[in-house]
Protein 1
Amino acid sequence: MEIEFIKKNNFRKEQRIKQILAKRGDHPGMVHIFSAMEPCATYKPWHDKKSHRTFLKPDQSKCLHYYFYFIDELLGLCYVRVPSWCPFRLQIYFNGHNWLAAQLRKRNIGYELIDNLFISIQDFNTAQDIADNIKVSLIHKRLDRFAEQFCPVIKNFNLTYHWSIMQAEYATDIVFKYRKDLEAIYGHLSRTAIHVVKPENVATPLCYSAWNACYLLWLEN
């Protein structure tokens, strides 16, 4: 597998991964590796003239980063962003929809997932219970495994990572059981969304949630 170096700022990694997956399939394993020069946290040597001490001082610079895209059997499509300079601050992405889909498969509960959207689940109550009882400790163990695999240099320092959330998105999709219930209000909801959400506000959290809420689905009885 060759490492693809990203030269352009407007390069969309997600689109490239989508093209690769269309040929590769969605079985677990490595998908692709990108590299790019990006800002990073690092250190610089510093000498204090008053104390006559020389030490490392936190600094900001730019270094080569690697993006490892892979499909995990539990978390689905993930990536690990690894800087090549110390202190090797990792960034890991995964989608909770994929985790829930894996849990549903274990329980033989049917579902249909299109991109990032469940359009049907055989047992909504059980799916909600599963989502409500997600164990953060299990996720942390998975992330620790990714860190050891894609940034093995941490073993030389006998260190482990403290994981924190950088960005989280919550699904606000509304699912209707009967099509006729949606038809009664669909026109009003779609017109309201068009008039209320302006192009310059699409990126704001409130309007993003409003757009998500406009994915109105129904399950035929």
Note: The two ends are 47 Å apart (CA to CA).
Protein 2
Amino acid sequence: MYAFDVTRPKTVADAVAALAGEDAQALGGGQTLIPTLKQRLASPAVLVSLSAIDEIKGVCQDGNVLSIGGGTTHATVAAEAGAYPALAALAANIGDPAVRSRGTIGGSLANNDPSACYPSAALASNATIVTNNREIAADDYFQGLFTTALNEGEIITGVKFPIPQAANYQKFVQPASRFSLVGVFVAKYADGVRVAVTGASENGVFRWSEAEAALSASFSAAALEGLTASADGLINDLHGDAEYRAHLIKVMTKRAVAAAK
């Protein structure tokens, strides 16, 4: 690692002020950033740890919306997001206990790893990402590989998830990393079904619109029989080629629909 300083503000306002300094970078749970620093792929002068900001932690329900603070750990989401069972189950299967106890939902969404689980939940749920100065619809938030609508120094303070009528997340796990080789989150709402895919595309999380149309007409695994996910733009690596991932997209989507509740 390169030498750097660490500051631990206790309010969002103080964190925003610290991030305005020269060459400062936010630190959530550190599950991505710390390995990056160890490999010398990043060299910020100051790390602004968000771990002491209590106002961005916690889970609460307001009517049919589940709000989760950006600094809430995966373990807490798994334990306290019972109003949205598919989301709680997703969080319970991220990484291992050490990762779940440190990693945060805000950190995951801010990083937007192409194989991370939370982006699929946010996109399929039509979630709203709340920052220190605005609210961003999930459809506008995810903008490509490791790319989001966040501005420099902007902090995710929370995420609002509309609770669906039925939902499920199916994850084909890459055994070494516990990331998704392919993960599919399906969420059924009164106005239609949303299907979000992670782990498969070179551009990161995306919606499978053909499956959404078929499932909105008939919410059953059988409705997907005539569909084929395109292999164009999918990841082709030693873990699986693009055609294999395209096959898995359909398999995982059918499983998610069959298990949705």
Note: The first helix runs from residue 12 to 19.
Protein 3
Amino acid sequence: MTEAITWLGLWLCRLLAFGPRWLLRAIAALVGGLAFRFAARRRAIAMTNLALCFPDWPQEERTRIAREHFYFYARAFLERFEIWFGSPKRLRERVLIEGMENFLAHQDKPIIILAPHFLGLDAGGVRFQLERQFASMYSHQSNAVLDTWTTQGRTRFNSPVILSRNQSITKIVGHLRRGLPIYFLPDMDFGVRDAVFAPFFGQPAATVTSVVRLSRLLGAVVVPLVTRITDQGYVARFYPGWQHPNDDAKETLIEGVTKMNTFIEQRILESPGQYLWTHRRFKSRPPGMPAVYG
């Protein structure tokens, strides 16, 4: 029964995504407003994150950003079906790529595409598939119908390689050595395993070290790709890349992770409502520090 309801809901969203744009955005505003009001747990997570990251901001400003986040979350979800099922021509019109020269400048090296959790993430990833084959990490959905739709939607073009998060890092190394870029999402709290505590807006955040370690091991270039929602659609922008020195010292590892977090902070400040504030980014805490999510 649950799968049948999911299937019906997904088809309704797919139909809506190809309807009048004003209608979709009006529904996104309604759904986002209702979610902010009634999704108490997610609202509390967002407000906690914003209070930790921006303690000097007025409460009213943090609330405004949280409301904006729920709107963009709903809009990105609804528009995702146009990304998943629209024609290549439509996709190119709706999602613009900027800074492609920053990606093309490193074709002679392994490339890690650093894709922080902005809400336009799916749009940028699928759009880039039209240009290049790459590999990407994927966490399976608990609902089988949603998992099928998500997997199909994210693997439309150029036969991308989908890697489960529990697969060995040796698979990632193999793909990078064969010249396949890796689309990496580095800014979620997956626990303290393979992570270090690095500052994120002044807070200790458990941050995976894979990007830095792979860059050091293989001489890979880290090229960020940030996708933003705009009035016209989406803009996926590549930023200048960097490499991490081949140094095994833990201090250098933490410096590399901090550099990555600092870059993400700078992009968040440009469009704070579009970052994934409803994720428990500070779930893991250093020894002796209290939990922050109740």
Note: The chain has a mean pLDDT of 91.
